[in-house]
Amino acid sequence: MRDLAGKVAVVTGGGSGIGRGIVHAFAEAGMSVVIADIELDAAEVSAESAPTTGGRVVVAQTDVTDSDSVHALAERAYAEFGAVHVLCNNAGVLVFGKVAELRVEDWKWVYGVNVFGVINGLHEFVPRMLAQNRGGHIVNTASVVAFSRGPGREPYTSSKAAVVAITENLRLELAGAGIGVSALVPGGVNTRIGESQRNRPPELGSHAVRAPRDPNAPAPSAPVLEPIEVGRMVRAAVERNDPWIFTHPEWLGANLEHVRGVVAAIEDAGSAGTS
Predict the structure, then answer these.
(1) Is the pLDDT score of 215 beyond 60?
(2) CATH topology for 8-270?
(3) For strand 136-141 and strand 32-37, is the pairing parallel, antiparallel, or unpaired?
(4) What's the CA gap between 217 and 148, in Å, rounded?
(5) What spatial distance separates the first Cα and last Cα of the chain, rounded to whole Å?
(6) Lowest mean pLDDT: which of 44-48, 97-101, 157-161, 211-215?
(7) Are 55 and 30 a contacting pair, CB within 8 Å?
(8) What is this structure's pTM?
(9) How confident is the model over 37-54, as pLDDT tens digits?
(10) Mind listing the pLDDT tens digit for each residue in 220-230?
(11) Of 197 and 34, the one with more pLDDT
């Protein structure tokens, strides 16, 4: 999508962190943005602080784990703007803990947000984007940990690996329809994901397990990016129709050759037909 000015984006988890960075980067380009977040106050702050360069920004309180809530988000977006050109399934949460210490509720929460949040977004928006027949782009937020290994992070790592698999296959599926698909694979970014528990549903209980030392964590000297930097990377990737958005490719370490092979295969298979 070469010219984003005047286009419409929906960003889940847009109230803070990477989501806010994406919102602001799209607004800089003159896009209108629907900010979806379970935290209404945070979404409103994102909206109020977004650059005003021709587009409009609206807020929709959304629980991405709830298909009815995501349906209401889609209805709101189309009622406001008549079309959606870019969808960013970005909402995510984090739980650490060794498998023997975790509870099933921990897995349910992480997968509900990180995986079914993406699935719910796709089921609501992909048919509409196809029907409007104007092309478009989808960005699903994964993580660099999807390509690494380490004890104590199985729910998060496996959920983000699922997002990668969904994204790889969706890019192939939608290539002929002119809809690009990208996997955002962030490394260290200055966000509040470590405080995810603030939004955990009471019925899933609390989680007090602390993260063990991660042997694959980046060195303390590795750069930590600000969300707006990542947002601008996302914007550029949408404009170029990139299949991958690696914020820290150097963090992939020993897994880099495997990733390069996967990247090359997806680029070769999915590059034709997208705009």
Answers:
(1) no
(2) Rossmann fold (3.40.50)
(3) unpaired
(4) 9
(5) 6
(6) 211-215
(7) yes
(8) 0.88
(9) 999 999 999 999 999 888
(10) 556 889 999 99
(11) 34
Question: Which strands form 32-37's sheet, in the order they lie side by side?
Answer: 57-61, 32-37, 8-12, 86-89, 136-141, 179-185, 244-246
User: Residue 238 above 70 pLDDT?
Assistant: yes
For residue 263, give both structure tokens: 């990247």
Is residue 111 annotated as part of the catalytic site, yes or no?
no
Residue 245's SS3 state is strand
What pLDDT, on a 0 to 100 scale, did the predictor assign at position 266?
Answer: 59
Candidate list 156, 244, 246, 251, residue with the active-site label: 156
The neighbouring-strand residues paired with 179 are: 136
pLDDT of residue 139: 98
In Å, what is the CA distance from 38 to each residue of 28, 70, 91, 114, 199? 24, 11, 9, 14, 8
Write down the mean pLDDT value for the chain: 87
Whether residue 200 contacts residue 237, with contact meaning beta carbons closer than 8 Å, is answered with no
Q: In the block, which residue shows the tokens 């994406």?
A: 22
pLDDT of residue 248: 87
> Taking the domains of the chain in order of start, what are their residue ranges?
8-270
DSSP secondary structure string for all residues of 57-72: EEEEE--TT-HHHHHH
Q: Which amino acid is at 203?
A: E
Q: Quick one: how many helices (H) and strands (E) in the chain?
A: 8, 7
Half-sphere exposure of 26 (CA within 13 A, CB side): 32
**Buried/exposed code over 147-165 (b: 16+ C-beta within 10 A; e: otherwise):** bbebebbbbbbbbbbbbbe
Determine the Cα angle at 244 with ends 158 and 147, to 5°: 30
Contact call for residues 230 and 21 (beta carbons, < 8 A)? yes
**Which residue(s) pair with 189 in the sheet?**
225
